[in-house]
Amino acid sequence: xxYDLSPNTHHPTPMTPRSSYVHIxxxxxxxxxxxxxxxxxxEDCFKPYVEALIKEITSAEPVYMPLETVYFGGGTPTVLPxxxxxxxxxxxxxxxxxxxxxEITVEANPGTVDxxxxxFLRRAGFNRLSIxxxxxxxxxxxxxxxxxxxxxxxxxxxxxxxxxxxxxxIDLMYALPEQSASDWQETLRxxxxxxxxxxxxYELTIEEGAVFGNLRKRCQLQLPDEEIxxxxxxxxxxxxxxxxxxxxxxxxxxxxxxxxxHNQTYWRNRAYFGFGAGASGYVSGVRFTNLKSPQAYxxxxxxxxxxxxxxxxxxGRQAMGETIMLALRMIExxxxxxxxxxxxxxxxxxxxxxxxxxxxxxxxxxxxxxxxLSPAGLLVANDVSAEFV
Length: 389
Fold this sequence. Notes:
Elements: E1 19-24, E2 26-27, E3 39-40, H1 46-59, E4 67-74, H2 82-95, E5 98-108, H3 115-124, E6 128-134, H4 138-143, H5 150-162, E7 168-174, H6 181-193, E8 198-203, H7 211-217, H8 226-242, E9 246-249, E10 252-254, H9 261-267, E11 273-275, E12 280-283, E13 286-290, H10 294-304, E14 308-313, H11 316-327, E15 334-335, H12 336-343, H13 347-350, H14 352-360, E16 364-366, E17 370-373, H15 375-378, H16 381-386
Parallel strand pairs: 1-4, 1-11, 2-3, 4-5, 5-6, 6-7, 7-8
Antiparallel strand pairs: 8-10, 9-10, 12-13, 13-14, 15-17, 16-17
Protein backbone atom coordinates (compact mmCIF):
# COMPACT_ATOMS: atom_id res chain seq x y z
CA UNK A 1 0.00 0.00 0.00
CA UNK A 2 1.36 3.42 -0.95
CA TYR A 3 0.15 6.90 -0.17
CA ASP A 4 0.57 10.26 -1.82
CA LEU A 5 2.38 12.27 0.81
CA SER A 6 3.84 14.94 -1.43
CA PRO A 7 3.01 18.47 -0.27
CA ASN A 8 0.33 20.50 -1.96
CA THR A 9 1.34 23.57 -0.01
CA HIS A 10 4.05 24.58 2.42
CA HIS A 11 1.68 23.99 5.33
CA PRO A 12 0.46 20.70 6.78
CA THR A 13 -3.14 19.66 6.26
CA PRO A 14 -5.20 17.40 8.54
CA MET A 15 -4.20 14.55 6.20
CA THR A 16 -0.46 15.17 6.56
CA PRO A 17 0.84 12.68 9.19
CA ARG A 18 2.66 14.49 11.98
CA SER A 19 2.31 11.67 14.51
CA SER A 20 3.27 8.02 14.79
CA TYR A 21 1.85 5.25 16.95
CA VAL A 22 4.07 2.21 17.65
CA HIS A 23 2.43 -0.91 19.04
CA ILE A 24 4.40 -3.28 21.26
CA UNK A 25 2.14 -6.36 21.68
CA UNK A 26 4.01 -7.97 24.57
CA UNK A 27 3.26 -8.00 28.30
CA UNK A 28 4.25 -9.84 31.46
CA UNK A 29 0.74 -11.19 32.08
CA UNK A 30 -2.78 -10.65 30.78
CA UNK A 31 -5.01 -8.53 33.02
CA UNK A 32 -8.53 -9.85 33.62
CA UNK A 33 -10.23 -6.97 31.77
CA UNK A 34 -7.85 -6.87 28.81
CA UNK A 35 -8.71 -7.72 25.22
CA UNK A 36 -5.97 -5.53 23.77
CA UNK A 37 -3.64 -7.01 21.18
CA UNK A 38 -1.10 -8.17 23.75
CA UNK A 39 0.58 -11.47 24.53
CA UNK A 40 2.60 -12.74 27.50
CA UNK A 41 5.34 -15.32 27.10
CA UNK A 42 6.59 -14.36 23.63
CA GLU A 43 10.11 -13.32 24.60
CA ASP A 44 11.55 -15.28 21.64
CA CYS A 45 9.70 -12.87 19.34
CA PHE A 46 11.25 -9.72 20.78
CA LYS A 47 14.28 -9.49 18.46
CA PRO A 48 12.55 -10.39 15.16
CA TYR A 49 9.62 -8.14 16.08
CA VAL A 50 11.85 -5.12 16.62
CA GLU A 51 13.62 -5.85 13.34
CA ALA A 52 10.25 -6.03 11.56
CA LEU A 53 9.11 -2.75 13.16
CA ILE A 54 12.23 -0.98 11.96
CA LYS A 55 11.72 -2.38 8.45
CA GLU A 56 8.05 -1.31 8.41
CA ILE A 57 8.97 2.21 9.51
CA THR A 58 11.72 2.60 6.92
CA SER A 59 9.39 1.21 4.22
CA ALA A 60 6.87 3.98 4.85
CA GLU A 61 6.81 6.98 2.55
CA PRO A 62 8.58 9.80 4.41
CA VAL A 63 6.60 12.99 4.97
CA TYR A 64 7.84 16.41 3.97
CA MET A 65 7.55 17.77 7.51
CA PRO A 66 9.03 16.20 10.67
CA LEU A 67 6.84 14.39 13.17
CA GLU A 68 5.52 16.19 16.23
CA THR A 69 4.60 13.16 18.38
CA VAL A 70 5.56 9.51 18.70
CA TYR A 71 3.65 7.22 21.05
CA PHE A 72 4.82 3.75 22.14
CA GLY A 73 1.79 1.78 23.38
CA GLY A 74 0.88 -1.80 24.06
CA GLY A 75 0.83 -4.25 25.65
CA THR A 76 3.66 -3.03 27.79
CA PRO A 77 6.42 -1.44 25.70
CA THR A 78 8.88 -1.53 28.58
CA VAL A 79 9.00 -5.32 28.63
CA LEU A 80 11.30 -4.86 25.62
CA PRO A 81 14.93 -4.02 26.35
CA UNK A 82 15.31 -0.26 26.62
CA UNK A 83 17.91 -0.36 23.83
CA UNK A 84 15.25 -1.78 21.47
CA UNK A 85 12.85 1.07 22.22
CA UNK A 86 15.63 3.57 21.65
CA UNK A 87 16.47 1.92 18.33
CA UNK A 88 12.87 2.23 17.16
CA UNK A 89 12.79 5.90 18.17
CA UNK A 90 16.11 6.51 16.41
CA UNK A 91 14.63 5.00 13.25
CA UNK A 92 11.78 7.53 13.43
CA UNK A 93 14.26 10.36 13.82
CA UNK A 94 16.41 9.19 10.91
CA UNK A 95 13.54 8.36 8.53
CA UNK A 96 10.94 11.03 9.25
CA UNK A 97 12.68 13.62 11.36
CA UNK A 98 11.31 14.97 14.63
CA UNK A 99 10.56 18.56 15.58
CA UNK A 100 12.80 19.91 18.30
CA UNK A 101 10.10 19.76 20.98
CA UNK A 102 8.49 16.52 19.81
CA GLU A 103 6.36 14.74 22.41
CA ILE A 104 7.78 11.20 22.76
CA THR A 105 5.63 8.99 25.00
CA VAL A 106 6.30 5.50 26.30
CA GLU A 107 3.75 3.49 28.25
CA ALA A 108 5.07 1.53 31.22
CA ASN A 109 3.64 -0.66 33.93
CA PRO A 110 4.99 -0.58 37.47
CA GLY A 111 7.44 -3.43 37.91
CA THR A 112 8.70 -3.25 34.30
CA VAL A 113 10.90 -0.18 34.77
CA ASP A 114 13.59 0.92 37.17
CA UNK A 115 15.83 3.94 37.54
CA UNK A 116 18.58 2.94 35.09
CA UNK A 117 16.04 1.91 32.41
CA UNK A 118 14.14 5.19 32.69
CA UNK A 119 17.33 7.26 32.73
CA PHE A 120 18.44 5.53 29.52
CA LEU A 121 15.11 6.23 27.83
CA ARG A 122 15.10 9.85 28.96
CA ARG A 123 18.62 10.47 27.65
CA ALA A 124 17.60 8.96 24.31
CA GLY A 125 14.78 11.47 23.87
CA PHE A 126 11.69 9.97 25.49
CA ASN A 127 10.13 12.85 27.42
CA ARG A 128 6.65 11.65 28.44
CA LEU A 129 5.98 8.63 30.64
CA SER A 130 2.52 7.07 30.85
CA ILE A 131 2.23 4.70 33.82
CA UNK A 132 -0.55 2.11 34.03
CA UNK A 133 -1.38 2.40 37.72
CA UNK A 134 -5.16 1.64 37.55
CA UNK A 135 -5.60 1.61 41.34
CA UNK A 136 -3.76 2.37 44.56
CA UNK A 137 -5.70 -0.34 46.41
CA UNK A 138 -3.77 -3.62 46.57
CA UNK A 139 -6.93 -5.69 46.91
CA UNK A 140 -8.44 -4.06 43.82
CA UNK A 141 -5.23 -4.58 41.86
CA UNK A 142 -5.34 -8.27 42.68
CA UNK A 143 -9.02 -8.42 41.70
CA UNK A 144 -8.27 -7.17 38.19
CA UNK A 145 -5.18 -9.31 37.63
CA UNK A 146 -2.50 -6.66 37.94
CA UNK A 147 0.90 -7.95 39.04
CA UNK A 148 2.09 -4.79 40.77
CA UNK A 149 1.23 -3.20 44.11
CA UNK A 150 0.36 0.36 45.06
CA UNK A 151 3.89 0.69 46.43
CA UNK A 152 5.31 -0.41 43.07
CA UNK A 153 3.23 2.27 41.36
CA UNK A 154 4.48 5.02 43.65
CA UNK A 155 8.04 3.83 43.11
CA UNK A 156 7.60 3.91 39.32
CA UNK A 157 6.49 7.55 39.48
CA UNK A 158 9.40 8.44 41.78
CA UNK A 159 11.85 6.65 39.46
CA UNK A 160 10.45 8.58 36.51
CA UNK A 161 10.96 11.86 38.31
CA UNK A 162 14.51 10.93 39.32
CA UNK A 163 15.25 9.98 35.71
CA UNK A 164 14.26 13.47 34.56
CA UNK A 165 10.74 12.93 33.23
CA UNK A 166 8.93 16.23 33.71
CA UNK A 167 5.77 14.97 32.02
CA UNK A 168 4.22 11.93 33.69
CA UNK A 169 0.73 10.60 33.08
CA ILE A 170 -1.12 8.15 35.32
CA ASP A 171 -3.88 5.81 34.13
CA LEU A 172 -6.67 4.99 36.61
CA MET A 173 -9.68 2.66 36.28
CA TYR A 174 -13.05 2.84 38.00
CA ALA A 175 -16.25 0.79 38.23
CA LEU A 176 -14.08 -2.22 39.04
CA PRO A 177 -15.33 -5.40 40.73
CA GLU A 178 -16.24 -4.76 44.39
CA GLN A 179 -14.79 -1.24 44.17
CA SER A 180 -16.61 1.16 46.46
CA ALA A 181 -16.97 4.92 46.13
CA SER A 182 -14.62 5.39 49.09
CA ASP A 183 -12.03 3.06 47.49
CA TRP A 184 -12.15 5.22 44.38
CA GLN A 185 -11.77 8.45 46.35
CA GLU A 186 -8.70 7.05 48.08
CA THR A 187 -7.15 6.10 44.74
CA LEU A 188 -7.81 9.62 43.43
CA ARG A 189 -6.18 11.18 46.48
CA UNK A 190 -3.16 8.88 46.16
CA UNK A 191 -2.77 9.82 42.51
CA UNK A 192 -3.01 13.54 43.22
CA UNK A 193 -0.46 13.23 46.03
CA UNK A 194 2.09 12.22 43.36
CA UNK A 195 1.38 15.40 41.32
CA UNK A 196 1.47 13.85 37.84
CA UNK A 197 1.14 16.28 34.96
CA UNK A 198 -1.65 14.22 33.42
CA UNK A 199 -4.34 11.79 34.58
CA UNK A 200 -6.42 9.48 32.37
CA UNK A 201 -9.56 7.72 33.62
CA TYR A 202 -11.01 4.53 32.19
CA GLU A 203 -14.36 3.07 33.11
CA LEU A 204 -14.21 -0.72 33.13
CA THR A 205 -15.58 -2.20 29.93
CA ILE A 206 -16.36 -5.90 29.90
CA GLU A 207 -14.98 -7.43 26.72
CA GLU A 208 -15.90 -10.79 25.25
CA GLY A 209 -12.94 -13.15 25.44
CA ALA A 210 -11.32 -11.43 28.43
CA VAL A 211 -11.38 -13.15 31.82
CA PHE A 212 -14.04 -10.72 33.07
CA GLY A 213 -16.17 -11.43 30.02
CA ASN A 214 -16.18 -15.12 30.84
CA LEU A 215 -16.92 -14.45 34.51
CA ARG A 216 -19.89 -12.28 33.59
CA LYS A 217 -21.32 -15.07 31.43
CA ARG A 218 -21.23 -17.28 34.52
CA CYS A 219 -22.74 -14.51 36.69
CA GLN A 220 -19.58 -14.46 38.80
CA LEU A 221 -18.69 -10.81 38.39
CA GLN A 222 -19.91 -8.28 40.95
CA LEU A 223 -19.74 -4.72 39.59
CA PRO A 224 -20.88 -1.34 40.94
CA ASP A 225 -24.31 -0.37 39.65
CA GLU A 226 -24.76 2.41 37.10
CA GLU A 227 -25.58 5.05 39.72
CA ILE A 228 -22.32 4.38 41.56
CA UNK A 229 -20.38 4.40 38.29
CA UNK A 230 -21.73 7.87 37.48
CA UNK A 231 -20.95 9.01 41.02
CA UNK A 232 -17.36 7.80 40.63
CA UNK A 233 -16.94 9.71 37.38
CA UNK A 234 -18.39 12.94 38.74
CA UNK A 235 -16.31 12.59 41.92
CA UNK A 236 -13.18 12.27 39.79
CA UNK A 237 -14.03 15.41 37.83
CA UNK A 238 -14.62 17.35 41.05
CA UNK A 239 -11.51 16.12 42.87
CA UNK A 240 -9.09 16.41 39.96
CA UNK A 241 -10.22 19.83 38.71
CA UNK A 242 -10.17 21.16 42.28
CA UNK A 243 -6.48 20.20 42.33
CA UNK A 244 -5.81 22.51 39.37
CA UNK A 245 -6.12 20.16 36.41
CA UNK A 246 -7.96 21.04 33.21
CA UNK A 247 -10.69 18.59 32.27
CA UNK A 248 -9.94 18.81 28.56
CA UNK A 249 -11.37 15.51 27.26
CA UNK A 250 -14.07 13.17 28.52
CA UNK A 251 -11.57 10.95 30.33
CA UNK A 252 -8.44 13.10 30.48
CA UNK A 253 -7.12 15.80 32.78
CA UNK A 254 -3.92 17.82 32.54
CA UNK A 255 -2.09 20.55 34.34
CA UNK A 256 -1.90 23.68 32.15
CA UNK A 257 0.47 23.05 29.26
CA UNK A 258 0.46 19.26 29.59
CA UNK A 259 -2.43 18.06 27.45
CA UNK A 260 -1.53 14.96 25.44
CA UNK A 261 -0.49 16.29 22.05
CA HIS A 262 -0.52 12.81 20.53
CA ASN A 263 -4.04 11.94 21.61
CA GLN A 264 -5.30 15.25 20.28
CA THR A 265 -4.23 13.99 16.85
CA TYR A 266 -6.91 11.31 17.20
CA TRP A 267 -9.58 13.58 18.66
CA ARG A 268 -9.07 16.11 15.87
CA ASN A 269 -9.29 13.27 13.32
CA ARG A 270 -5.90 14.12 11.85
CA ALA A 271 -3.55 11.78 10.01
CA TYR A 272 -1.04 9.53 11.80
CA PHE A 273 1.17 6.57 11.06
CA GLY A 274 0.55 3.24 12.78
CA PHE A 275 3.34 0.67 13.08
CA GLY A 276 3.36 -2.78 14.64
CA ALA A 277 1.06 -5.77 15.03
CA GLY A 278 -2.58 -4.71 15.17
CA ALA A 279 -1.69 -1.02 14.88
CA SER A 280 -4.02 1.29 12.99
CA GLY A 281 -3.03 4.32 10.95
CA TYR A 282 -4.81 7.07 9.05
CA VAL A 283 -2.90 8.45 6.09
CA SER A 284 -4.13 10.43 3.06
CA GLY A 285 -7.73 9.65 3.94
CA VAL A 286 -7.08 5.89 4.16
CA ARG A 287 -7.56 4.11 7.47
CA PHE A 288 -5.67 0.82 7.75
CA THR A 289 -5.10 -1.89 10.35
CA ASN A 290 -2.16 -4.27 10.52
CA LEU A 291 -2.26 -8.02 11.11
CA LYS A 292 -2.72 -8.72 14.82
CA SER A 293 -0.61 -11.84 15.28
CA PRO A 294 3.00 -10.88 16.07
CA GLN A 295 4.35 -13.78 14.03
CA ALA A 296 2.05 -13.09 11.08
CA TYR A 297 3.09 -9.43 11.27
CA UNK A 298 6.79 -10.36 11.30
CA UNK A 299 6.38 -12.71 8.33
CA UNK A 300 4.45 -10.13 6.28
CA UNK A 301 6.91 -7.31 6.92
CA UNK A 302 9.88 -9.55 6.15
CA UNK A 303 8.21 -10.40 2.85
CA UNK A 304 6.96 -7.02 1.67
CA UNK A 305 7.78 -4.32 4.21
CA UNK A 306 4.04 -4.01 5.04
CA UNK A 307 1.55 -5.98 7.13
CA UNK A 308 -1.80 -4.36 6.32
CA UNK A 309 -4.77 -6.63 7.00
CA UNK A 310 -7.57 -4.21 6.06
CA UNK A 311 -8.04 -0.67 4.84
CA UNK A 312 -10.78 1.74 3.84
CA UNK A 313 -10.92 5.16 2.27
CA UNK A 314 -12.79 7.61 4.47
CA UNK A 315 -14.49 10.40 2.55
CA GLY A 316 -17.59 12.57 2.43
CA ARG A 317 -20.19 12.29 5.15
CA GLN A 318 -18.33 9.47 6.90
CA ALA A 319 -15.26 11.67 7.32
CA MET A 320 -17.41 14.58 8.55
CA GLY A 321 -19.32 12.40 11.02
CA GLU A 322 -16.17 10.86 12.45
CA THR A 323 -14.62 14.30 12.84
CA ILE A 324 -17.64 15.48 14.85
CA MET A 325 -17.75 12.29 16.93
CA LEU A 326 -14.10 12.54 17.90
CA ALA A 327 -14.18 16.30 18.52
CA LEU A 328 -17.10 15.89 20.93
CA ARG A 329 -14.78 13.90 23.18
CA MET A 330 -12.96 17.15 23.90
CA ILE A 331 -14.57 19.46 26.41
CA GLU A 332 -14.05 22.44 24.07
CA UNK A 333 -15.81 20.48 21.33
CA UNK A 334 -15.77 21.03 17.59
CA UNK A 335 -14.31 24.20 16.08
CA UNK A 336 -16.94 25.21 13.51
CA UNK A 337 -14.50 27.29 11.49
CA UNK A 338 -11.99 24.45 11.19
CA UNK A 339 -14.77 22.09 10.14
CA UNK A 340 -15.95 24.47 7.43
CA UNK A 341 -12.40 25.00 6.17
CA UNK A 342 -11.73 21.27 6.08
CA UNK A 343 -14.96 20.06 4.46
CA UNK A 344 -16.29 23.16 2.70
CA UNK A 345 -19.65 22.99 4.47
CA UNK A 346 -21.22 24.44 7.61
CA UNK A 347 -21.83 21.71 10.17
CA UNK A 348 -25.11 23.40 11.11
CA UNK A 349 -26.35 22.88 7.57
CA UNK A 350 -24.97 19.36 7.09
CA UNK A 351 -26.36 18.08 10.41
CA UNK A 352 -29.27 20.40 11.13
CA UNK A 353 -31.72 17.66 12.18
CA UNK A 354 -29.22 15.94 14.49
CA UNK A 355 -28.09 19.19 16.10
CA UNK A 356 -31.65 20.45 16.62
CA UNK A 357 -32.69 17.15 18.22
CA UNK A 358 -29.70 16.90 20.55
CA UNK A 359 -29.86 20.59 21.51
CA UNK A 360 -33.56 20.25 22.20
CA UNK A 361 -32.81 17.45 24.64
CA UNK A 362 -30.12 19.51 26.36
CA UNK A 363 -27.28 17.19 25.34
CA UNK A 364 -25.19 19.58 23.25
CA UNK A 365 -24.43 23.29 23.25
CA UNK A 366 -24.01 25.32 20.05
CA UNK A 367 -22.29 28.71 20.12
CA UNK A 368 -21.11 30.98 17.34
CA UNK A 369 -17.88 29.04 16.96
CA UNK A 370 -18.24 25.72 18.86
CA UNK A 371 -20.34 22.60 19.06
CA UNK A 372 -19.79 20.73 22.33
CA LEU A 373 -21.38 18.38 24.81
CA SER A 374 -23.44 19.84 27.63
CA PRO A 375 -22.81 18.59 31.19
CA ALA A 376 -25.77 16.22 30.70
CA GLY A 377 -24.41 15.08 27.35
CA LEU A 378 -21.07 14.30 28.92
CA LEU A 379 -22.69 11.38 30.77
CA VAL A 380 -24.10 9.86 27.57
CA ALA A 381 -21.33 10.88 25.18
CA ASN A 382 -21.37 7.66 23.18
CA ASP A 383 -25.11 8.00 22.50
CA VAL A 384 -24.69 11.60 21.41
CA SER A 385 -21.77 10.78 19.10
CA ALA A 386 -23.71 7.93 17.52
CA GLU A 387 -26.13 10.49 16.08
CA PHE A 388 -23.40 11.70 13.70
CA VAL A 389 -21.99 8.41 12.39
